[in-house]
Amino acid sequence: MTRTPVLATLVLLFTLITGLAHAQDATVNINTADVATLASLDGIGESKARAIIEYREAHGPFASPDDLAKVKGIGTRTVEKNAQRLTVQ
């Protein structure tokens, strides 16, 4: 009996789990992010992500992450929760 497939499976699972943990920490450029990327932010679902994109298309790029609170349905608390991940490069 070989243990290689079991070991390989465990290594793969560990890699996937740690990769997902790091993905949660990735910065999000709110001026270029797509719906899926914006929806990965805490407190932002698909409909709010679409509202962010509609707002930036109508008003131009965000000058700072705090401007995200100008989007209807997104409050300062949501911006604060995501402050470490937001950028406007």
UniProtKB/TrEMBL annotation:
Keyword DNA damage: no
GO molecular function (one): DNA binding
Residues covered by the Helix-hairpin-helix DNA-binding motif class domain: 36-55, 66-85
GO BP terms: DNA repair; protein secretion by the type II secretion system
Highest taxon, organism lineage: Bacteria
Endpoints of the signal sequence: 1-23
Gene Ontology CC terms, in alphabetical order: type II protein secretion system complex
InterPro entries in alphabetical order: Competence_ComEA_HhH, Endo/Exo/Phosphatase_dom_1, Hlx-hairpin-Hlx_DNA-bd_motif, RuvA_2-like
Keywords on record: Signal
Protein name per the record: Competence protein ComEA
